[in-house]
Amino acid sequence: MTSPATTGSTTTPTGAEPTARTASDSRTSATRRSTSRTSTTRTSTIRTKATQAAPSRWLSKAAVNGVLLLSALYTLFPLLWLVTAATKDTGGLLTGDALSFKGFDLGHNLSELASYNDGVYLRWYLNSLLYAGGGALVCALISVAAGYAFDKYDFRGKEKLFAVVLLGVLVPSTALALPMYLLASRAGLVNTYWSVLLPVLVNPFGVYLSRVFSAAHIPDEALEAARIDGASELRAFWSIGLRMVMPGFVTVFLFQFTAIWNNFFLPLVMLSDQKLFPLSLGLYAWNSNTHAEPSFYPLVVTGSLLAVLPLVVAFVALQRHWKAGLAAGSVK
Amino acid sequence: MAAKARTSRRTGAAAGVLLTPFFVLFTAVTVVPIGYAVWLSLFTEKQSGLGFDGAESVFSGLDNYTAALGDRAFRDGFWILLGYCAVYIPLMVGGALALALLLDSGLARARRFFQLALFLPHAVPGIIAALIWVYLYTPGLSPVVRAMDSGGIGFSFFSPDGALPSVVNIALWEWLGYNMVIFYAALQAIDRSVLEAATVDGAGAWRTAFSIKVPLVRASLGMVALFTVIGSLQLFTEPLILNQGSGSAVTSTWTPNMYAYTAAFARNDYGLAAAAAVLLALTAALLSFAVTRLTTRKGARA
Amino acid sequence: MSRSWTRTTAAVSVVTALALLTGCGGDDDSSSDAGRGTADKPVTLTFWAWQKGSKDVVDAFNASHKNIRVDFEEIPSGNAGGYAKISNAVKAGNGPDLVAVEYPMLPEFVSQGALQDIGPHLTDEVRKKFLPQAVDLTTLGGKSWAVPFDAAPQTYFYRKDFFEKNRIEVPRTWAEFRTAAEKAKKADPKARIATFMPDDPTTFEAMAWQAGAQWFKAEGDTWKVNTSDAATTKVADYWQGLIDDRLVQTAVSFSPEWTAALKDGSTVGYLGASWGAGVLKSTLPDQSGKWGIAPVPTWDGRPASGMLGGSTWAVTKGSRKAAAAVEFATWMSTTEEGVRARIAPGTSSAFPADVALRPAAKKAFDAGFYGGQDIYRLFDEAGASINPRWSWGPTTGTTNTTLKDQLGKVSGGSVTVRGAVRAAHDATVAELKKRGLKVEG
User: Fold this and answer.
1) Contact at 8 Å (CB) between C198 and C250?
2) Contact between A285 and C81 (Cβ < 8 Å)
3) B61 min Cα distance to partner chain C (Å)
4) DSSP element (H, E) containing A314
5) What gap in Å lies between CA C355 and CA C377, rounded to an integer?
6) Which helix (H) or strand (E) holds C243?
7) pLDDT grade, residue B299 (50/70/90)?
8) A2: distance to nearest CA of chain B, Å?
9) Of B33, B163, C43, C81, which cross-links A179 as Cys (Cβ 3.0–4.6 Å)?
10) Which of A142, A181, A316 sits opposite B22 (nearest CB)?
């Protein structure tokens, strides 16, 4: 992950930011709705124009779709390779012919994956689910609570405190991982579940996002009504605020889940016990073993395919959600 | 009046309760580690005799900083990063924007499919993306390299000249679609009457795209640039995989992040590692600050 | 006020912060069993290694011993991340009891304070069993730091069928080696008789060692570092020539690229060491019977060898089970059962540092892959020719990381082999100085 938009391996500012960027408010969806309406009109206008210059239009159309097709080929090809490679045995993998099904051995690869080292791969899978699921859940809750407080309450030094949160967004997470490791090793926390779980509970970006969502989705009147009914502040948050800000909660959860699932640097420095590894680190360890033992190649490749599946399925199934999340960030 | 005071005390307490978890954790995983790293960076392990009698930690002031800055490998890391940014950022921002404009041009078909197809690599963890691409770079295994060879393009991804392109390509693959979707969403949100007016005025597709659409999505451009810069500074996973056993010319200190990692885990010099991490964090903070200032000024009242 | 105070505060503040959420404690079985363990109350050891056959050895040991139970974990090989993992765990206070460390890295680990002196548990009787060079390399500052396991004289593996078919003689000197490389390339433009492995500085070091170099020398309490001697320069220039003239393949050790080239027969040789016999055999099962082993070429035709890798077992600093750990390590290194258990499954061709065990090792290794060649006799002769003057310095981590990074650029031409050695030299000297040690060089 490292690269561009955070998600950096580790922790805090990770994942969510896209959404954030400015994260609009309920206006966004309204704008988008009207957009889709107008775009029909627009297409028809263009169409009228198009009849005047049919051949050149046909050409442009071919060019545009051709470029798009090429770029889709670029993004999909490695995934296609992963699928065919995962079906191969060691020999098939190392003799090339990557895109055929020569040396088909998927069944064996899967059973090896399940049984190697007492099924440690399954354990990694569960660990990843725990880190990503549990971490993202708690992170989203903490973020929403803080975002809600920033939005709904006035207290001294509020905006200064919020500026600290924004500053936190800008600290690259991998630059923090090493200091965290040094500290954790001092505190005796290295190589525990907590060493990986605790840092991912914090996402300043999630707080920022939650504040925006809270402003957009929780009308002050609703809270006022609850207060008049005699509900305590915390009860009002828990039973009214949290429910109304659910879309924000889901967004923070989704992005943090992806970030943690893809996390590599933090577990790499923190964990040495295989039983605690998430998938990313486990596959890395196996990949290191391939050097002495080529029979690890099929394990790494098939294991990678299975590790990618849940997110691919989630992204295909939840297209509306991540598109809305990214859109929220893009419209100022 | 009295009622209001009571409410504000009440809400103050509630705000405290809701904010505490975040700020306690934030302090524990951000502020304290940075402070501790700064502290550690002021000490060096000194040994005696031939070095086999154990070591003691000695206050050494800014020695670790001068050691890091004086180490060519560390400085080279920043140059490489700079080169990386120079190649990667224009390609990424330009490429993503171009694809978004094509998708938004009214000529594209199957727009949902293209969005999904381009976005999908984002679902692949960086480490796995790197593993896949290492195979696709490896001579003798890769269909891509074979195709290039038979096409007369003998490019070695593992050669020193190939190091930068091979890392840029992996990052591009992972993030191109992601940023494209952001731009596309921004383009879709443009008020269509503006575009129609332009068409009526006789502006062609190119002119509409560059003189109307692009200026209108300037804010998104700034944000994507900012996060791409921050992300670039963190460059670690992909070059690490290329470094470890692929045959690539990517070194173990290729980026400042890798330098810090190597200092801690291969050289066991925590002081040096801490100093390198602090210098990196500082650079990142300065850069993000600069980019934010730049983009907010430009994007202001956009 | 000072440092320890602040450190404690920092640590405490985090621990309190974390304690809010955790409530977890280290559940190390602290049954304070410092002794050797008994059948009633066995000691449980943890052992990390990557050497082939380790799991089989552990199983055999556990089956035949009641006083000690060994929990084995296979870790990536040292340079592929194993060393980082070990030192990381030891620093964090949750390291295993016994670990594998190769000779080159031993001084680095000792100097980090990651290991403990096992002198009290290692009798002279045991020590005498080993090749003297191996004992020297594990004795640092007058203390014993590890139980030697194997000796790893460098050897040359080659495809007999290819050499015979093209009438290429197996090279005995480095001059002949170059000629053979040229002939091979002429016979088949794709054929290479060896691979330059830029990620593996120890192969280069083994050749410098063979040629008589002495990079690290301890005099009094001063380290003399010398890498610009005639021997090293000769080796550097020789390899520069082979690389420039594309007479060797360039690929990372054990990488897919290397394996693929061996599989398709374009790479027909391998400069490895005794342990490499098992690696080739398990990597290329379908080339059984086609490989032969020869002593590593020398400069003057007289037998000489450097050591490429070679493993020892060392007890980590934090372990309170040193006695049991040494007992198990000694069993692995000096008993027939131990050696047989490792070698018989077929992946390991370890060449024991315990001289008396070589017949047992030979019997256990199925040399069919090498057409029944008496490879242990060859190892024996090569082992005896290991140059005894070489020793490793306490900064191998820095030296080898730098050398590796620089050698990676050689094939592209931006760095020469000599330049790479020079850079490693400078980094080494700087590191020694940074640690407050006296250096000349």
Assistant:
1) yes
2) yes
3) 13
4) helix A296-317
5) 12
6) helix C230-244
7) very low
8) 5
9) B33
10) A142
DSSP bridge partners of C130: C354
**At residue C322, does pLDDT exceed 80?**
yes
DSSP state at residue C97: S
pLDDT digits (tens, 9 = 90+) for B105-131: 888 888 889 999 999 998 899 999 999
- The answer, yes or no, to whether residue C27 has pLDDT greater than 90, is no
Closest alpha carbon to A22 in A244, A247, A213: A213
What would the two tokens of residue A247 be? 């879309």
DSSP C215: -
Looking at the DSSP assignment, which residues form a beta bridge with residue C269?
Answer: C158
The H or E element spanning position C68 is strand C68-74
Model pLDDT for residues C390-403, shown as the tens digit of each residue: 999 999 889 998 99
Return the biggest CA–CA distance within chain B. Answer: 85
Strand partners, C314: C99
Gap between the Cα atoms of B172 and C137, Å rounded: 48
- Best residue in C6, C9, C22, C347 to probe A by mutation, most A CBs within 10 Å? C22
Show the tokens assigned to C201.
């500085």
Question: A164-202 burial by CB neighbour count: b if 16+ within 10 A, else e?
Answer: ebeebbbbbbbbbbbbbbbbbbbbbbbbbbbbbbbbbbb
Closest residue to C18, CB basis, from A194, A291, A294: A194
* Strand arrangement, sheet containing C269-273: C269-273, C154-159, C291-295
What is the enclosing helix (H) or strand (E) of C148? strand C147-148
Tell me the C-alpha distance between C9 and C86, whole Å: 28
Strand-pairing partners, residue C90, are: none
State the DSSP H helix or E strand holding residue C381, giving kind and residue range, or none if neither: helix C375-384
Low-confidence spans in chain A with pLDDT less than 70 = 1-55, 95-99, 291-292, 325, 327-332
Nearest to B37 among A82, A149, A179 (CB): A179
ipTM: 0.86
Longest pairwise C-alpha distance within chain C = 77
| H or E segment and range at residue C273 | strand C269-273
Tell me which chains share at least 3 CB pairs under 8 Å with chain C: A, B
The whole-number pLDDT of residue A254 equals: 83
pLDDT 10s digits, A171-195: 777 778 888 888 888 888 888 999 9
Give backbone dihedrals phi and psi of A271, rounded to 5 degrees, phi first: -105, 140
What is the SS3 assignment for A193-241?
Answer: HHHHHCHHHCCHHHHHHHHHHHHHHCCHHHHHHHHHCCCCHHHHHHHHH
Q: What is the mean pLDDT of chain C?
A: 88
Chain A residues near residue B26 by CB distance under 8 angstroms:
12, 165, 168, 202, 204
DSSP string computed for B225-269? HHHHHHHHHT--HHHHHHHTTS--S--TTSSHHHHHHHHHHTS--
Residue C22: its chain B contacts at CB < 8 A? none
What pLDDT is recorded for position C227? 95
The mean of the pLDDT values for chain B is 86
- Nearest CB among C24, C50, C283 relative to A192 is that of C24
Q: Is C305 helix (H, G, I), strand (E, B) or coil?
A: strand
Q: What radius of gyration, in Å, describes the C-alpha atoms of chain A?
A: 24
B261 to chain C: nearest residue by CA? C84
CB contact under 8 A, B50 and C143: no
Tell me the CA distances in angstroms from A69 to A75, A77, B109, one per residue in order.
Answer: 10, 12, 10
Sequence letter at residue B25: L
